[in-house]
Write a structure and sequence with these properties.
This protein has one domain: Alpha/Beta hydrolase fold, catalytic domain (Rossmann fold, 3-Layer(aba) Sandwich), CATH 3.40.50.1820. The chain has 9 helices and 8 strands.
Length: 295
């Protein structure tokens, strides 16, 4: 990485890592990118994907902040704060935005949600005009009639069975048990308040009408998402397509465990950011920037 990273303390007890590009790589006028905890995991993201993605973005000219919300990782939670966890997360994301506005002058933001952190990304995005982009990694999923009709095909999927065996019996594959984060297992109980499909449709229309750019990436391995256009079978708003890029990786698992799958996701996110927000200054000035722009 050609930029710099430093610990950033902000708010009453929040901590994260500010990742900034080198002066020669900085893109003027682009939004800052925010990442935070997936479930109860540290802000590095599943398999350190947020760390790798933040450093790639720094090389491409973007500033990002990956941080822990209250009570997770390096961020303490006040015993006097009796708000529900979901409400605290929204407040923490807004605090991160305000901090980057005060300290770095950013007025626009792209929020990256992954699985459970999509909840705060979506809610803050709907409510905050400063949010100009949202990335939904493994976001909201609702089973549809076509999903159920296609479900038996999963029993014939070799990759699905291999993922299951690796998760349950990693030693058979010469892998340490610590490599597999069970807190991200689809069977792990993690309570979330999903919007109804009807409310999600209204939200997506609102975001699209406001001009927010969106990227939704879904995997097909042991998830509730089974085919490419399933999104438009539960979000009844085809006009959202003008603002939303929809991507489906049928062979990938929920956490993009395989390196090749994470690489594809990171390539897609960086290419989308450059295309939507890089502007004229995003013309390839390095091999990495050129590869991302082509992705």
């Amino acid at each position: 990485m050609s930029g710099s990273e430093r610990v950033l303390a902000f708010g009453s007890s929040l901590h994260g890592v500010l990742c900034e590009p080198a002066p020669q790589d900085r893109l003027e006028g682009v939004p800052a990118v925010l990442f935070w905890n997936v479930g109860t995991n540290h802000h590095v993201g599943p398999h350190r994907v947020f760390v790798e993605l933040a450093r790639r973005l720094a090389n491409l000219g973007f500033t990002s902040l990956r941080f822990d919300t209250s009570g997770l990782g390096d961020s303490a939670a006040s015993r006097d704060d009796t708000r529900p966890d979901a409400e605290r997360k929204l407040s923490d994301v807004r605090e991160a935005m305000q901090t980057l506005t005060k300290q770095r002058g950013f007025q626009r933001f792209v929020l990256v949600g992954f699985c459970s952190s999509v909840d705060a990304a979506h809610a803050v995005g709907v409510q905050s005009p400063e949010v100009v982009g949202i990335v939904y990694l493994e976001g909201y999923q609702y089973r549809t009639r076509r999903f159920y009709l296609q479900y038996p095909q999963r029993l014939l999927n070799r990759n699905r069975w291999e993922r299951l065996l690796r998760l349950r019996y990693p030693k058979l594959f010469g892998e340490p048990e610590s490599l597999h984060d069970r807190s991200l297992d689809p069977e792990t109980v993690f309570v979330r308040d999903y919007p109804t499909p009807e409310q999600l449709t209204l939200d997506m229309r609102h975001l699209s009408q406001r001009g927010v750019r969106m990227l939704a990436i879904y995997s097909g391995g042991d998830t509730n998402y089974g085919y490419e256009d399933q999104f438009y079978d539960f979000v009844k708003a085809p006009e959202v397509a003008r603002s939303l890029e929809l991507v489906f990786y049928p062979s990938a698992d929920h956490t993009f465990f395989l390196v090749e799958h994470r690489e594809r996701v990171m390539d897609r996110v960086t290419a989308w950011l450059l295309r939507e927000f890089g502007g004229a200054s995003a013309s390839p000035s390095s091999g990495e920037r050129a590869r991302a722009a082509e992705g």
